[in-house]
Amino acid sequence: METTAVEYVVFALCAVIVLAGAFGVIWFRNPVQAALSLVATLFGVAVLFLNMNAQFLAAVQVIVYTGAIVVLILFVIMLLGVDVEEDLEEEPLVGQRVIALVIAAGVAGLVVAGVTLGGADLVSGARSVTGSIVDDVSNIEQIGRLLFTEYVFALEITAVLLTIAVIAAVVMSRRPSEVEPLPAENASMEPPEPMEPEAEEVFD
Amino acid sequence: MRSIDAGYLVLAAILFSIGAFGLLVRRNPLVMLMCVELMLNAVNLTFVAFGMMLGDLAGQVTVLFVLVVAAAEVVVGLGIVVAMARRRPGATADDIRVLRG
C-alpha cells in the first residue's frame, strides 16, 4: 500500500493538533480549558484513525470520547463547581516535576529509539492471524463479524463490565441520608460548607 | 515498513509520555483522569497502527474493548471524585487517602 501525499499532510496536521491538545491538558490551570483541549486531542486521534482506514473506530472515538466521556467530565466540573484554578507555581513535593519529567522523557526516548532503530524488523509477528483486512468489504462489517465470532466472550464480559460500572456510579454518587463533613486537617484548608436541607430533598 | 508507520508510533509514544507526565504532576483528580485518557488514546493509536502494518483487524477490535474499559473507568473515577468533593470541597489527589477505612 503506497503512501499518498494526502496521507502525509493529514498526519502532520493531526500530529500538531494532537500534541498541542495534549500539552494544553497538562498546561491549563482551569480544568474546563484542559477538558476542551482534550477534545482537540481526541478529534485529532479520530482523524488519524480515518487516515489508517479504521472508519468505524473514528466514529466511535468521536461519539464515545468527545460525546460521552468529555461531556461527563465537563458535567462533573460544572456540577461540583470545582473549576477553581490550580496553583501550578508551587511544587507540592520536592523534586516531583523533575522526576516526572525524567520518567516521561525516558519512556518517550526508549520507545522512539526502539521504533527508529528497529526499522523493517519492527513488525515481525505473524500477519493476519485473526482476521485480515479486506479492502472491498466495509470496515464496520468486518469488525462486526469478528466481534460476534472470535471475540464473542470478550464482548459478553464487556457488557457485564459496563453494568458493574453503572451500578458502581449510582452507588458512589448516591447522596447518603446523613453526611458528616470530614474535619479539615490543617488550618489553611477551609472547612467544608454544611449541606442545605432543601437541596437534598430535590435530589431525593 | 513505511515511514508514516514509524510516525504514528513516535506520535503515540510522545502522547503517552505527555499523559504520564501530567498524571505524575497534576493534583486535580479530574485533570489526572484526563491524563489517563491521553495515555489510553496513545495506546489505541499504537494498536491501530500495528494492526494496519500487519493487515490484521485484531488491533481495531482491541481498541473497541479499550474504549469500553476507558468509559467504565471514567464513570467509576468520576463517582469517586463526586463522593470526595461532596465531603471536602476543593479536594486534591492527596486527599484521596481519606478513603481508607
Topology (SSEs and partners):
The complex is a heterodimer of chains A (204) and B (101).
Chain A: H1 5-27, H2 31-51, H3 55-80, H4 96-118, H5 139-149, H6 152-173, H7 197-203
Helix pairs in contact in A: 1-2, 2-3
Chain B: H1 3-25, H2 29-54, H3 58-87
Helix pairs in contact in B: 1-2, 2-3
Question: What does this molecule look like?
Answer:
The complex is a heterodimer of chains A (204) and B (101). Chain A is built from seven helices and no strands. Among the domains of chain A are: 1-85, Up-down Bundle (Four Helix Bundle (Hemerythrin (Met), subunit A)), CATH 1.20.120.1200; 137-174. In chain A, α1 (5-27) runs antiparallel to α2 (31-51) and α2 packs antiparallel against α3. Chain A is mainly alpha-helical. Chain B is elongated and about 55 Å long. Chain B starts with a helix and ends in a 14-residue tail after the last helix. Chain B has one domain (3-99): Helix Hairpins (Orthogonal Bundle). The model of chain B has no long low-confidence stretch (mean pLDDT 86). In chain B, α2 (29-54) packs antiparallel against α3 (58-87). The longest helix of chain B is centred in the C-terminal third of the chain and has 30 residues, at 58-87. With 101 residues, chain B is mostly helical. The chains are: A mainly alpha (204), B mainly alpha (101). The interface between A and B is large, with 98 and 74 residues.
Instruction: Kindly estimate the percentage of residues of chain A that lie in beta strands according to DSSP.
Output: under 5%
Radius of gyration of chain B: 17 Å
Summarize the biggest pleated sheet of chain B.
Answer: none
How many strand segments of chain A? 0
Count of DSSP strands of chain B: 0
Regions of chain A with pLDDT < 50 over 5+ consecutive residues? 196-204
Rg on CA atoms of chain A, Å: 23 Å
Task: Figure out the total of helices of chain A.
Answer: 7
Derived structural class of chain B? mainly alpha
Strand content of chain B: under 5%
Q: Please state the average pLDDT score of chain B.
A: 86
Query: What sort of overall outline of chain B do the alpha carbons produce when their principal axes are compared?
Result: elongated
